[in-house]
Design brief:
Helices cover about 35% and strands about 20% of the residues. By secondary structure, the protein is of the alpha/beta class. Helix 12 links the parallel strand 21 and strand 22. Helix 3 packs across helix 4, helix 7 runs parallel beside helix 13 and helix 7 runs antiparallel to helix 14. The structure holds 5-amino-5-deoxy-1-O-phosphono-D-mannitol. 5-amino-5-deoxy-1-O-phosphono-D-mannitol binds next to helix 9 and helix 16.
Length: about 600
Amino acid sequence: MCGIVGYTGHRPAEKILLDGLKRLEYRGYDSAGLSLGGKELLTIKAVGKVRNLEQETQKYGELKQTTGIAHTRWATHGIPSVRNAHPHLDNSGKFALVHNGIIENYAELKQKLTAKGYTFASDTDTEVVANLIAEFYKGDFVQAVASALHRINGTYGFAVLCTDYPDTILVARHGSPIVIGLGDGCNLVASDVAPLAAYTRKVIYLDDGDLAVLTPDNVELRTIENLPVEREVSNIDWNVDSAGKGQYEHFMLKEIFEQPESISNTIRGRLDRKLKSAMLSGLGLTPHELAKISRIVIAGCGTSMHAGMVGEYFFEDIAGIPAEVEQAAEFRYRNPIIDPDTLVLPISQSGETADTLAAVREAMNKGAVVAALCNVVGSTIARETGRGIYLHAGPEISVASTKAFTCQVTVLLMLALMLGRNRRLSRDDGDALLQEIERIPDLIRETLKQAPAIEKLANKYAYAEDFFFIGRGTLYPTALEGALKLKEISYVHAEGYHAAELKHGPIALLDDKVPVMALANAIPGQEKMIGNIQECLARHSPVIAVVTGDDNRVCEFTQDIIRVPASSRYVAPLTTVVALQLFAYYFAKARGCEIDHPRNLAKSVTVE
Ligand code: M6R
């Protein structure tokens, strides 16, 4: 949520900052700005996308400053506008600051600073911190920032410039990620590795409470208590190209089509053909510890929560372990019953979602075994849990999550296989499941061939302002995910429901203007789903049915059919969701929506 990038070196900073912001734009895109350092600060801002800031910057001609900070914003305090865009300056113009996170006591600090004569040009919490630093400044930049940080409650990732230190960037972290890139004759900072990969492979992830002083030739790490600290230098394990759009019009389409490959990467080296099981060593649990797990609690938000809901079926059905899913934000407020034999699985593509992180901390405090399913290596959740399973899906840039979901479900299936083999799953059943997992990339490849047919259907239905998605069993959470995809990128009202639940209320909304996407694959419950389809047709709702292979059982009721390859109920969510992702994509495209940057959203949600 919001993106930060900073550069100090010997090259003009402006282009590097703008390039970095473009790579971070998925984190927030309602306004952007940059400040270039020197004896005087030059600050330029624009509402909307980074390209608007770029145009604004061009008006200043060639900019030679070699130190700067920049920001792309997802509004929390104050509407998207130039005056609320970052960087924010103190009243004297000595300090410029960009910030991710929320300052909870900003109103109280603002009042105190106002009483001392400070004025404020924006509605943001961030501007308060710029003036607070100025208030403490007596010539020592680090000391002033550290003093200000001691007065702040809330979360932050900061990058700050000061005119008295023209080639220095000061950064600090508490709750919002900050990564430092170690370059050759330059150093960089960003809120994730995406803008750093073009300049260096070596990065340092700051911990909460860290403060770093960057100059072109040095990075000095301290705590905000001013004690020296050392942090590990990590390597970035993906290249810049994998974070580009390639031949595709949108990141979302690219990521949908990447799924056979990303799932292959998720599976690679993790299936044990000899034992007919899976090897997920990142869990760090012995077979004895695995056998002791008596309950599984999954926590996540949005798409990750839907993946968890599919996983719930796997753990109970395959491994015989009671499982439940919690919306992560609810987890710590429900006083969940957790004991040392409970395995808590937080699921998060970004590994930075604040609600999921809060659930992780609560579960760890309660003594649970906590193992995270994250995609972003080195993310806060991955590091705080210290154990888990990386998805290896590669960078997911589109705000609408696609390949992360299918990789999450694949990991959950492998974990259920491993836990099942550790308990009641026979060798033969383990082998059958293992073989089906190996087939997933090919099944997705088959499904992707339906893209042209799905595009036609999406164009046909692009008129609709309301949509229902219904499913049963493992296809119930798949229906929720299909509806989420459609609503977030097309802004059409879409609801996912259990097919049986429809008649308990929502059916009142159906008429000839409300299409229903019915997940009617040949899995247990299909007969009942056919009955549910008829209930919808009887209310004049047009029905699109997802069916398996050449199954024609619903063809006498509807002509609008999406075919996905035959699979068990465990793999059906994967093939089916790919069809629904394509449907949402083409539907939004037909309506002229901004697919990769849907309104009001951000890729990683780092506020609770
Ligand atoms: O990074 P996370 O997986 O923790 O993100 C959770 C949700 O914010 C995310 O899945 C969101 O729902 C997506 N935009 C859905 O496409």
